[in-house]
Design brief:
The chain has a single domain (about 25-35, about 45-304), classed as Rossmann fold. Helix content is about 25%, strand content about 20%. It contains ten helices and eleven strands. Helix 6 (about 110-120) crosses helix 8 (about 145-150). The chain is globular and about 55 Å long. The mean pLDDT is about 90.
């Protein structure tokens, strides 16, 4: 039935994995120790402002705000209409998080419609260009926010190599818990996390990396701007479905700029920044914060 409904190659790959009797299943290898909350949180210090950016249909802003708040930021709900109308500016913010969800119902190519609201609006384009040019800012794009920011790469210094994101090879919306490897990269958000293998949820229909506009997987790895990649249950990079849920070449699913200030990724770290948010976790985890909370802590420490 799956072969008839979906991509038959993906159906066969998933079926063949059932015969791997040595498959250890989901696992975890964290290359860092859990840390105490950022000093600003522990001492009640100042909370820098981070814009939790959303557009019509986006539904991941609550989790994103909660993660940044816990890490010591003041999370501010910011809708694209606020920027387009001139009611709000990006000038007061040190960080920006473009959230996931079904922007424009995914009918315009996921994040493409969202990006168009910026590129083709003079005020919004100027606001985003000024924000990305400032050396004291950082940005995170997740899922639809990742797709949107990839279309803004001409406005983002050091993002010329970023790919676009196309329809999943499976031809279906994929919502799964998969494993990724944190790669050595310049990303400020993944500082100290390289080499870690950590489960993370995905939920997207158009997450396949497309380098047809330039660059390539090898180039992204060589210049350390590739930040995340899907791995199989043995910890090896994979293009095999469903361990690689969208068919991205080399398993790549996250990228950063050459200076590391702006990072985009398809998986959702904000949905599992606490241990109890996982549908599966090893019995050895003893901390309330999950490994992905380190990403938000890193942002707070960088701002400090």
């Amino acid at each position: 039935m799956q072969a008839l409904r979906d991509n038959p190659i993906c159906a066969r790959q998933e079926f063949d994995l059932l015969s791997d009797l040595a498959d250890p299943g989901l696992s975890i290898r964290v290359g860092f120790e859990p840390r105490e909350p950022a000093p600003a949180v522990a001492t009640g210090g100042a909370r820098p402002a981070v814009a939790i950016l959303r557009e019509q249909g986006v539904n991941g802003h609550i989790e994103m705000a909660a993660a940044f708040e816990r890490a010591g930021f003041h999370a501010v709900d910011l809708h694209m209409s606020d920027i387009i109308s001139g009611r709000r500016s990006l000038a007061p913010f040190r960080g920006l998080a473009a959230c996931g969800g079904f922007s424009y119902g995914d009918v315009l190519g996921a994040g493409r419609g969202w990006a168009s609201a910026t590129v083709y609006n003079e005020r919004a384009r100027a606001e985003f260009a000024a924000f990305f040019e400032r050396p004291d800012t950082f940005a995170l794009g997740v899922c639809n926010g990742c797709q949107m920011m990839s279309h803004l790469r001409d406005l983002i210094p050091g993002a010329a190599h970023w790919p676009r994101f196309a329809r999943n090879v499976s031809e279906q919306f994929e919502a799964r818990l998969v494993m990724v490897e944190v790669l050595p990269s310049s990303s400020i958000l993944f500082d100290g996390m390289a080499g870690s293998l950590i489960p993370i949820p995905v939920a997207h229909g158009e997450g396949r990396v497309d380098f047809s506009a330039g660059g390539g997987a090898r180039q992204a790895l060589d210049n350390q701007t590739a930040a995340l990649r899907f791995v199989d249950h043995h910890g090896k990079p994979t293009e095999v479905y469903p361990n690689n849920p969208n068919g991205s070449p080399g398993g790549l699913t996250g990228f950063t700029t050459t200076d590391g200030r702006c990072t985009i990724l398809m998986p959702h770290p904000e949905r599992v920044f606490l241990r109890w948010q996982y549908s599966w976790l090893p019995k050895t985890w003893r901390y309330e914060a999950g490994p992905w909370f380190r990403l938000f802590e890193n942002a707070r420490r960088w701002v400090a």
